[in-house]
Each structure stands twice: as structure tokens, then as C-alpha cells.
Amino acid sequence: MYQALYRKYRPKSFDDVVGQDVIIKTLTNAIQNDKVSHAYLFTGPRGTGKTSIAKIYAKILNCEHLENLKPCEKCTSCVQINNNQNIDVIEIDAASNNGVDEIREIRNKIGLVPSNSKYKIYIIDEVHMLTNQAFNALLKTLEEPPSHIIFIFATTEPHKIPRTILSRCQRFDFKKISNKHIVERLKHIAEIENIKITEEALNEIAVLADGGLRDSIGMLDQAVSYSNEEITLKDIHDINGTVDQEEIRALLKAIFDKNMVTILEKIEEYEEQGKNIVKIAQEMIDELKNIILYRNVPNFFEEKTEFYENVKDNVNNTQIYCYIHSLSELVGNMKNSSNNKILLEIELIKMITEETNSVPIQEQVSVKQTPEKIKETPTKEQEEVKEKSVEKSSTPKEITPKKIDFSSVLSEEAMQSLNELKKIRINNSLVAVSQKNRNAFKEKLEDLKELLMDPDYSKLISLLFDGELKVISDKNMIFVYKTNLLAEAFNLELLSLEKVFLEKFKEQYRLIAVDEEEWNTIKTEYNKNKNNYQYQEETIDVPKIFATTSNNVAKKNMIDELFDSFVEYEEK
Asked: In whole angstroms, what is the distance from residue 326 CA to residue 329 CA?
């Protein structure tokens, strides 16, 4: 049976380990100086050698014929460990054995001496998955273990481990493997396996692996299956759904030139080719970063790049920083979305249509262009004008957010009904709060983003996604907004929003919105009296609140004003 390359070339001694020199030196010195600890914690990204080093360390500690801190690979202990048959080296996957009963079983067995080894060693992988009760059961054992017991914990998320456990372990933080070391290791494997691969393909694998050596070897294994001849850069892009650097630069050039047609055509092409939209967005961020670096530290690059030279006058640094920030947020949102293509299209359209606060490079006045003006001595009148200007600018004017009068939209009676409705829906949303349902429905909400491109729905859906779904209980939901203005705008559009939900999800939902200040008060009250909440029947005639035509006209004008003038301020 074929053995995967990452298993075949898993390190069997410290000499085979790549990129963790400090950790190797510390562990070998501990053995030499007879200062072996009873508990270790190995933390770091996946594929950086945590479990491999744990097994090698266990092998060295139990080897019967150790020479120069290298396991002999021939004694009973070494052979059994290599074949996963050593009953004194116990590997436990905490992801599937995370309960208190499993830990109690370990605690009951640690008193037994090793069968044919010096130490009984427990290697617990993904230890952060243990429950709090399991950690508590482990605590006493970890504090005072028998002399023949050693624990080695491995995790990618050390922040989830209780401090009481952390304080009883020697912690080793594994770093990402450098691209240089990954390429060297892949070349070594390629030579042994007689794999033909180009230098560009090796470098691309190293970049995509993001410091994970196991991931890079797995990628090489996949490329071998994909390509019948020499593995090229194109093969790596095909396998991972990425595109080459020139394609990313062409997309960025279209953004800088505000060429909407080219942008949408390219994204459509990526979708048809099955490209990974998330990785394309990440590659755009990397290339934007390179543009900034080239402008500020040109010597960092070995040779001049024509693309970086050509874009210097098309976009300024502030705009690039804005692009990087927007795309970084987009990548985070994509992880929970089912339609990344639409998200990328919308984000790029926003990037090229929204005005930035920066001054375009063409409009900036160069000092070299007007040296004679700088050297001119100002007149007395100019000095007086300058002093008045400085005095005026030094006293900041008080500004307040532009206000919108909601009384023009609803009558006093309608406002009272809306506030009563708000109380009932908040109460009913909190009766049976479900975090699981909330997370599931937030994924369903992503489908509504398709309507952002529809002029009939764009403002409504944009308003919806300016807030966050915080609570869902049965068919009642609470959305939270940063400002009261947005929350009230949401509530005024209740009927329209609920109609969209009904059309899209085929169920009738009852929605309500609050601002962050009110939400904090609601949370505090709920935590004090959560057991006192009971379902209330909703008897208010919601359509009647927004019944009159004049009110609907006023509401529409107010919503339009909200979107068109939200960032305007009025001076006092």
C-alpha cells in the first residue's frame, strides 16, 4: 500500500528535524544534564514538528543503546515506538478522548511501572480540546506525578488551556518553518523519490504552506499525482486554486485604473476555473504590501520590477493602505460565507467607487516645483493674515452628528406602539436563546448579500448588514447597531425586512434592533433575571404602525437621507 510522503519522511531523530534548533538544543541539554521535566507543553502552528519531536524525545529517553543522544533504532523500545506498538509510550488524541472519564483512567494507571522502558510517557495531542472537568482531574496528577511518568502535551491553541495547567509545564513555542528550510527539505525528498520539479514550483509550495512543513510535503505529494511529467508552477496553481503573480498584478492594475469591466470579467473567469477566491484576495494583499515596500525600501528587491515602477503615479500610499485594510477584513468575512465571489466583487466595486480622504498624487504640489515661493519673505499683511488663520484653526469648532427627526415619520401613538413592540420582541428573543441557532442562521444571512447588487434591495440589505445578529430564539431575532440612528432606521423598515426574510427563507421571522448602549443594558438585566423570562403573546398590529401613505413617504425620504448624508456634520 502506498505510504504518503509526509508519513514516509517524518523525522526519526533530532537530526531530521527542520527549523526548531532552539527547542532541540534545550531538550538535548536536559537529557545530558539529567534535568528531564515531568511535563512539557509543545505549542505552535500545525505541521511544525510538535508530535514528531515528542515521539523522538520519548524514543531517546527509553532507548536501551543510546549513543551521542541518537536512538539506536534497533532496541525493542525504538522498534516498538516506530511501529506505534510501545505500550509505555501512549499517544492520546484529546479531540476524541476529551472527557473526564478518559483522564481518570490515565490517573488510575499511572501508578503502574513501565513494562520494558525507563519511562511511561503520555503524549496528548490537541490537549486544548479537553473539557474543564478533564483538566481538573488531570491537575493533581500533573502536580505530583510518579518519577517514571512524563507528560507531553501538544496544541495549536495554548490560550485555551487553563493557567493552572500551563504553570506546571515547561513550555516550548514552535515557530513556523522558513521558506528556505521548506524548499531545502522538499528538494531532498524530490531527489530521493526521483521527482522532477522546477525551482519556481518549490518556492510557490513553500509560500502556500505558510510555515507548515507537513502541508508542503502533502502538497508535493498531490502535485506528483497531478503531473505526469515535470511539476511546474502552473501545476501548483491548478492544484491550490491560485493564480500566478502576473495575473494578480493585472487585476490590481484594473483596480488602479478603475476598469470595472475588466475586474468583473477576471473574477468571473476565476470562478469558472475553480480558483480559490480567498487565496486570490490574500495574494492581492501580499502584492499591495510589495508595492509599499518597493516605494519605501527599493533596495529590499534584488531587481527593479516594471509593474511597481508603472503604478507609482496611479495610486498613493494612503489608498493602498485602505485597500489592504478592506481586503484583510474581506478575507475574515469570507471564512463564514458560502459565496465568496459576490463578496469579492462587491468589495472591489466599493474600493474603486468610494472616494478616499487622501489627495491624489497628481494634485500634490512638489516642493521642487516652487523653490522661489518658499524663499520669499512674507509681508507684514501676510503675517497678520497667517496669525489670524492660526488663531482661528487652533480653536476647534464643536461638531455634532447630523440629526434626523423621527417624529416626521411616526405619530406619537405609533411611536408608543413601536416601543411596546420592541419590548415584547426583545423579551421573546431572550426566552430561549440558542447560540447554535444563531451561528447557523448567520451563515444563512450571507445569502442575502446577493441582493446588494439589486437596486430595489441594495439600501435595505446594506442597512441589515451594518448591524450584527446577536440573539435568535425560535423566530424572534435581535440585531445590534453601533448607533441609535441605524437601529431606529432598521425598526422603521421592519415590514420590508421581514418580507425579504419570508421570500428568501420561506418562514416568518419577527425582527427588532437596538443600539450597543441599549444592548449592554439588556445583557446586564438578562444575566440577573434570566430565569424570569416568559414568552409574551404579540398582539400589536405591526402594519398599522406604518399604515399612512404620508408616513411612508416621510419614511422613504428619511431612509434616503440616512444613506446619502450619514457622514455629514453640522456646525454649532
From this structure: 5
